[in-house]
Amino acid sequence: MQSEKLLLEMQGVSKHFPGVRALHEITFDVRAGEVHGLVGENGAGKSTLMGVASGALQATEGTVRIDGTEVSADPDLARELGLAIVRQEPALMPDLSVAENLYLGLPHARRPSLSGLNDWARKLLLHWSDDVSIDPRDHITTLNPEQRFIVEIVKALECEPKVLVLDEPTEHLATEDVKRLFDRVRKVTARGASVVYISHRIREVQAIADRLTVLRDGEGQGTYPARELNEDQIVSLIVGGDLDRTFPDKATPGHHETVLATQEFSGPGFSNVSLQVRAGEILGLAGIDANGQREFMRALAGIHRGHGHLTLSGKDIQIRSSQGAKALGISYLPGDRHREGIFPELSIRENFSIRSAHEDTRLGLVSSRVEQGRTREAIRQFAVKTPNGETPIQSLSGGNQQKVVLSSVLAMKPKVLLVDEPTQGVDVGARAEIYRVIREAARAGVAVILVSSDQQEVAGLSDHVAIFSRGRVVEMLTGDRVTEDNITASVLKSTEQRDKHHKSLGAFWKWAAGNSAPLIMVGLAIALLGAVAGAWNPYYLSPRSLSNMMTLAATLAIVAYGQQFLMLVSGIDLSVGPTMGLVQVVASFFLLSGAAGGDQALGWMLVLVVAAVVGFVNWLLVEGLRLHPMVATLATFMAVQAVSLFLRPVPGGMLDGQLMNALNTKVGIVPVTFIAAVVLALVMEYVLFRRSLGVSMRGLGSRQEAARTAGIRPVMVRLIAYVGCSIFAGLAAITMFAQVGIGDPRAGISYTLGSIAAVVIGGASLFGGRGSFIGALLGAIFITQVNSVTVFLRLSQEWQQYLLGFLILASVALYSKSREKVVQA
């Protein structure tokens, strides 16, 4: 039962982005125990308003209070006060497991121990459904859109929020999961909490909400009891007047040429599909999600492989790839706009022209004039709301993004247009325009195949509708029989319950995409190479030879740990080699035989301080000046090297003999430095997977915005990473004392590329979010082993590069292919 207590209050909230007024003096409140609907067109400001409420965005003006406490641009505080948000695009970190994402999504006080994380996460998922098909150990990237939304919803519900914000929560959910969601919403309000429900589906909002607020162009249009307004009145408030919500006229009956026909066509998720689509007509594919209709369309687009008989304009064809489909004149509008439709970092012009770049080419070169002219015409024709074509597409509303993608696909001048969820996440105003464009394309002679989870949309647009169930076409509706009621009745009659989606991914590829694959692969390579070298030259496996290799591997491993530490957060440090040299030079002035105790102590302090200062400077360049990490650390590389050469133009300063003897100590044949490297690897691996710092670093590297909304502070985590990387380089320099013995400014230069190679061989991603300290240790051992083997086998120096290059390519290729298989499965 709702009360007058306000759990969320927003007074006079305005938000300005450069050149855009997103919100203007919005007043919005949510009472305890109520569901408050928030509706409006895409770009009206709904998600921005909730971004301000959740602390993800800083309001330009106005105040926000959660349960009476004022908050401002602090996601952590908003979560601690009881606000949880399920975003339209789930704020999940793809390189982390389901369990780790659930863990980071909770306030610190509610997080469990990482030691039993998977069991804890499995119990949470079972709270959603007894037959949930999500393994808590799976990485988010392996999940389909519906499963990602379920994880996001489960994460928010586990917070037991006082205010739960649901932003387009049902767009990817099947009917049974929508019912589950509504049941959870009612339980949330029954305990006195509140729900903000954002959706373009007006009937859905009216069914669940107590009150609703309408936004238009960043301004409030009033708050009303949800059931006192009818659907047309709400639409009028949303668009600022009456809206023609009828669908365009359908194709006129008559003889039309068959453009595309399938006969006994089968593939992953569908079988024996025989259909045909004619010029000027729209063929709709309907059915409960994951019953084969979308998989069939993606096979026609060349994304998945199908087999069977296909004809295009009467000629037999084969579709082996998306490029092949495009060459045949088959264009595809993807349903997952965020992941497959747009290039978020590019402009509208680039997103529009990229699929039809040949149209802009003159004499082998892209004509800027032609490209800009075509972009302006597309913006005009498709009524895209934007200042100009150079606007980054990610700054547009969802509806305008969809219109840009649709215009880009149609610019390819297709014979067949495949349309997957044309209006998903699109407001009611933009939908009418998209419907008009699709029908006009059909009238121009294009054969259109349409998939939509909205039965009314399928009925209103399609001339014929094929009903899919369990991967087969079970009924065809045509003419007057194409109605929403008939489609719904056919779907329900054909399939009593939804078949859950299971990814058909081979065990090998799933293993290859995991964290253990690089470790096992490098371990096998080390064993194989050692066996070959030992058989060829028995001295290779002698105690002295093995001890020397371990000594060299220890230094490379420790500096590689620093590189790995930084790569986890999408960074890279080219200055680690010169940093090692500078530490060596500094030590050569203080850590000398006969030096006073005070000088020795000062020397040890300076060794660590100098390394930390280099890391801090790198962090300032990257975070403060916004330089790319490679540019910033390359500049530091040269600066640090210059300082070292200034201090020691030529090598000099013999280090303390007792110190070098201590560093050369062995336990049996194993150097203490190698033992230290192994212990460090195990400790850091534990931190990486069993401590919140490690999970936070991987999350930040996996997806920064999702990590930030989970309460991870990117600036501070990167500071730890950059300083930590340089400190590891300093520690590696200490192990190098015994190998060099004097202050040599060039001693560490070769370790820069070696450290990068070691972590890549060990399974790290240059894009962040993935890696292993044990993998970095194995990578260092393998590199050292290759350098040694080429000497023992009397191979030329280039063989070092051949062997290392081969393993690096093999590691990256296997990982990339496995991830591709996982995503496509």
TrEMBL record:
CDD domains: ABC_Carb_Monos_I, ABC_Carb_Monos_II, TM_PBP1_transp_AraH_like
InterPro entries, per database record: AAA+_ATPase (IPR003593), ABC_carbohydrate_import_ATPase (IPR050107), ABC_transp_permease (IPR001851), ABC_transporter-like_ATP-bd (IPR003439), ABC_transporter-like_CS (IPR017871), P-loop_NTPase (IPR027417)
Transmembrane segments: 519-539, 545-562, 601-622, 629-647, 667-689, 719-742, 748-767, 774-793, 799-816
Pfam families with a match to the protein in the record: ABC_tran (PF00005), BPD_transp_2 (PF02653)
Keyword terms: ATP-binding, Cell membrane, Membrane, Nucleotide-binding, Repeat, Sugar transport, Transmembrane, Transmembrane helix, Transport
GO molecular function: ATP binding; ATP hydrolysis activity; transmembrane transporter activity
ABC transporter domain mapped to chain residues: 8-242, 254-495
Top-level division of the source organism's lineage: Bacteria
Membrane topology: Multi-pass membrane protein
Designated name of the protein: Ribose transport system ATP-binding protein
Phylogenetic placement of the source organism: Bacteria, Pseudomonadati, Pseudomonadota, Alphaproteobacteria, Rhodobacterales
